[in-house]
Design brief:
Elements (H helix, E strand, L loop, with lengths): L7 E4 L1 H16 L4 H30 L6 H22 L10 H10 L7 E4 L2 H4 L5 H11 L5 E5 L2 H13 L5 E3 L14 H7 L7 E4 L8 H12 L7 E4 L12 H9 L1 E2 L4 H6 L8 H9 L4 E4 L27 E5 L4 E6 L4 H15 L6 E5 L2 E5 L5 E2 L7 H18 L10 H16 L1 H5 L2 H10 L5 E2 L10 E3 L5 E3 L15 E2 H11 L4 H15 L5 H25 L4 H23 L2
Parallel strand pairs: 3-4, 3-5, 5-6, 6-7
Antiparallel strand pairs: 1-2, 8-9, 9-10, 10-12, 11-12, 13-15, 14-17, 15-16
Helix pairs in contact: 1-2, 2-3, 3-4, 3-7, 6-7, 14-18, 14-19, 15-17, 15-20, 17-20, 18-19, 18-20, 20-21
């Protein structure tokens, strides 16, 4: 099934350097040490994007990783920021004088001949999965290695590798880009870079990345290369993002090596829920926002459903592995939802949306953002919404008001989402996987229409997740939208779309009759002050159903160890399949 996509941003390198400088300015002007630390982490992440983009540009030109002055300078800036972050973390976020070294390094980089454009890959762990650079700092400190050779795997492993190198006192940092089949990655290294890595026959190697994922082949590619060049397995140490095994696509050799290898990991729970110092914990980060200390109840991995007061047989499904970390915090006087929204500007973008949605009456009240977490007031007295039990015309009006607001107030850049052609390709592929090749080919005419309609797409920050269980009624009976902030910037291929995508999504999720779907489109156009394109709606309806079918199929397969969860997910798979069959019957 086609579900995921790589978020790549084409950027002018000078502008990306400007983002680093702006984050440093905000760090210098921060009112508190904690805010200053947040800005230093943001500067580190933005530097990682710059370094990854420039080094990858040279990689693509040469066809391999090779030494270069630009690579050295970009890596030096990353090391400067890693050092600043380490000092702030070790000092308990104490305010101190600004280190001028990063500014000088930025000035030197700006004077260099830079590529005309770079392709910055989204660091998914920082944006979605509560992966903190400080966790790698702690892991490296606990590892107690003598200065190793550090190899960061691009993309995010470059930034994390700088943190490990700084913590271990390593003499520099090498980064590599494994290439080839996603499950059979290999390295392509210039002899000069290879010689530098292999120069010390007694060296220990620290290999750093976010994974392992489905196959662990990126970690495996680096270890394969080292062993092929005479490095004993005992001298290879892994710094991963979690303590689990590689996924089901891992080769037997890679799986066997992983199980016996030395691995150094500090996960989010150890970092922020069981911190070695109280000021390093999640509760301490947000205490000033919520008015004091409180009890944190973990609602991640589907545990939020326990708050719905529904019997188990009526629980909505959850893709537990893909959920953001979230907690309910109870101070004894007030309760709050504390949810990971992303580090740096990813999180600030979601705070902006949350504030706008609350003011417009569609969502919970945000009280602040801190260290990657958005804090909202708990919706007291909320109850699940049953779309079949209420006033259908009133439901359509409320949906239209919400979607029209998003269309008016949340414009998006033209390159911020999948093209119609890419969505149509996904439609044909997923339909073929679910219903057979002939059914997939039946949508070829829609694929041709998608190419013709591309110029009519007006992208907005769409909701992308209109599921029935995403809506709650508050004490006054007002219908509120939960989880409305980040699915247009998620780890999938959809991204920001025309508001017709959400109109089509609402029609599928609420099982709207054709006349109801038509009325919703008319009402949204009125609220948006811009008509909803009916041709786009006809193309996007089956695309939405096919995307959700793929997402829930993959979630069901991942829940094989939990029959109850798999059954909930399978019900949704069957529902989206029915919708696809219905679209196939349309003329």
């Amino acid at each position: 099934m086609l579900v995921y996509g790589d978020a790549v941003r084409v950027e002018e390198p000078g502008r990306q350097l400007g983002r680093v400088a702006a984050a440093l300015d905000r760090a210098r002007d921060a009112a508190t040490g904690l805010d200053r630390h947040d800005r230093l982490v943001e500067a580190l992440i933005e530097t990682g994007a710059f370094a990854q983009g420039t080094i990858d540009a040279e990689f693509e030109a040469a066809g391999r990783d090779a030494p270069s002055p630009l690579r050295d300078a970009a890596t030096a800036l990353l090391m400067d920021l890693a050092a600043a972050m380490r000092r702030s973390w070790a000092a308990g976020f104490a305010m101190g004088p600004e280190d001028p070294t990063p500014r000088r390094t930025i000035d030197g980089l700006a004077r260099r001949a830079l590529p005309g454009a770079i392709r910055c890959r989204l660091a998914e762990g920082f944006a979605f999965y509560a992966l903190y650079p400080e966790a790698y700092l702690e892991a490296a400190v606990l590892a107690g290695l003598r200065p190793p050779r550090v190899i960061g795997i691009r993309s995010i492993g470059l930034t994390l590798g700088a943190v490990v190198a700084e913590a271990c006192g390593a003499h520099g940092l090498a980064s590599v880009r494994p290439v080839g089949h996603p499950f059979q990655r290999q390295l392509s290294l210039d002899p000069g870079l290879a010689a530098g890595l292999l120069g010390d026959p007694a060296a220990t190697y620290a290999v750093v990345d976010e994974g392992p994922g489905l196959s662990g082949s990126s970690f495996g590619a680096v270890a394969d290369w080292l062993e092929a060049h005479g490095v004993d397995r005992s001298r290879i140490r892994f710094f991963p993002g979690h303590g689990g095994e590689p996924g089901p696509q891992a080769s037997p050799a890679h799986r066997e090596r992983w199980r016996s290898a030395a691995r150094h990991v500090v996960d989010f729970d150890a970092l922020a829920l069981r911190p070695r110092q109280p000021w390093h914990g999640l509760g301490g980060w947000i205490e000033d926002l919520v008015g004091g200390p409180g009890r944190l109840d973990d609602l991640s991995g589907g545990a939020w459903r326990e708050c719905l007061a529904l019997p188990l047989d009526r629980w909505p499904p959850a893709h537990r592995q893909q959920e953001r970390r979230k907690f309910r915090l109870d101070t004894g006087r007030r309760r709050f939802l504390v949810k990971f929204a992303g580090l740096g500007r990813h999180g600030r973008d979601k705070l902006r949306r949350a504030r706008a949605l609350h003011v417009a009456g569609f969502g919970a009240e945000p009280v602040g953002y801190r260290r990657g977490f958005l804090v909202e007031r708990w919706i007291e007295g909320a109850r699940p919404f049953d779309p079949q039990a209420g006033d259908r015309p009133a439901l359509l009006r409320r949906l239209a008001a919400y979607l029209g607001f998003r269309a008016r107030c949340f414009p998006a850049a033209p390159e911020s989402g999948a093209t119609l052609s890419a969505l149509a390709e996904m439609l044909c592929h997923n339909t073929g996987e679910a219903l057979g090749r002939e059914a997939g080919r039946a949508f070829d005419s829609l694929a041709r229409a998608a190419r013709r309609l591309e110029g009519r797409v007006r992208r907005v920050e769409t909701d992308n997740r209109l599921h029935r269980w995403e809506w709650l009624l508050d004490r006054d009976g007002t219908l509120l939208k939960t989880d409305a902030l980040d699915h247009c910037a998620a780890h999938d291929l959809v991204g920001c779309q025309d508001i017709a995508w959400d109109v089509a999504g609402a029609a599928v999720e609420f099982d709207l009759a054709p006349e109801e779907a038509g009325e919703l489109g008319r009402l949204v156009g009125h609220e948006a002050r811009q008509p909803v394109d009916p041709e786009l709606s006809r193309v996007l309806g089956p695309c939405y159903a096919a995307f959700q079918l793929g997402a829930f199929t993959m979630a069901r397969d991942a829940a094989a160890d939990d029959p109850d969860e798999a059954a909930r997910l399978d019900r949704e798979v069957s529902r989206y399949t029915r919708h696809l069959r219905r679209f196939l019957s349309y003329p």
